[in-house]
Amino acid sequence: MPSEPELLSRTALAAFRLNGQFLAAAEAMARPAGLTAAWWQVLGAVLREPLPVAGIARAMGVTRQSVQRVADLLAGRGLAEYIPNPAHRRAKLLRPTEEGRAAVRRIDPAHAEFARRLAGSLGPGELEETVRVLERLVDAMDTIGGR
């Protein structure tokens, strides 16, 4: 039976590889819509409701600075815009423009096809179980502080 440190190492290596695979797939899906994977991630974070850059960064698990850079690029290209934040004068909210929403919608068919292929490869119910396990792992990492 593998030791806990060995299992942790194997989990981390698998997560790093999976992250790379998801980023490559996201780049391939986003490119025809004129987006990058990072642009798609940030736009996706604000599709339901406008958020401050710090809130987007927390949701994505990345630095505020990296989200700020992408948000500024999106705003500069007319794909998103900053609006006043009633809860905080200086921390404006980011929201997609109609052009940004249209770009994300152009990705939807490729995204749906990729999801179908992945679910088919895993088999019935396995994608849902994978999501549950990964969400439990994220919650556990949040609980222990990642240290």
From TrEMBL:
Entries under Pfam families matching the protein: MarR_2
MF-aspect GO terms: DNA-binding transcription factor activity
Domain HTH marR-type: 4-139
InterPro entries cross-referenced by the UniProt entry: HTH_MarR-typ, MarR/SlyA-like, WH-like_DNA-bd_sf, WH_DNA-bd_sf
GO terms (BP aspect): response to stress
Protein name: MarR family transcriptional regulator
